[in-house]
Amino acid sequence: MASHMRAELVIDALTMAVATRGGHVDGVIFHADRGSQYTAAAFAQVCDGFGIRRSMGRVGSSYDNALAESFWQGLKRETMHQRLFMTMRQARLEILQWLTYYNARRRHSALNYLSPVEFEQQHLRAAKLAIAA
């Protein structure tokens, strides 16, 4: 989180995500809207460096980004609805707690009722088994 929407914000987030996966992001597609931070040359360069393919929705079409729109709607409804955070630190902490819950424990119907972490782990195990076979 930051008080700006510059490219370094999403570059830092992407770099942390890649590090979390041990640098192994082969075949990853990063889908975003056409915000200036995602269309920036610096962001494209970082994606290219990691071997990440970029994908962008059409201008003004929320349908191209339905899953992301659903995510943001849930985050806003469950953490920020009719709330005023006293400090940026408080907002960061509460949003981080929600993100941890969302990714590690919350079941998603689109993921066969697994959490995103469980889904990714299951996918990686299946890919390793396919390679071994």
UniProtKB/TrEMBL annotation:
SUPFAM superfamilies reported in the protein's UniProt record: Ribonuclease H-like
Transmembrane segments: none
One Pfam family in the UniProt entry: rve_3
Superkingdom of source: Bacteria
UniProt feature coiled coil, ranges: none
Domain Integrase catalytic: 1-124
Name listed for the protein in its UniProt record: Integrase catalytic domain-containing protein
UniProt source species: Streptomyces luteireticuli
